[in-house]
Input
Amino acid sequence: MSHPIDKKAVYMARYPKGTIIELVEPLEDPYAPKPVGSRFKVDCVDDALQLQGVWLPPQSGSIAVIIEKDKFKVVS
Output
């Protein structure tokens, strides 16, 4: 008998509040695109498995990072 993996719990452990991530590929969004190198401070993982938080200057906006789609690395 196997147990399903709780992806949200795994991602919450991997990206706790305060984690800084950096894009390694541009985030293509028609309203708020983000270039490679943009940094994001994680507040939480939502139920849609997206990172919610704030973009660090010089970037701004409220677009979330989609964990299983967007390409990024953990900086701290």
About this structure: The longest strand covers residues 39-45. Strands lie at 20-23, 39-45, 50-55, 65-66, 72-74.
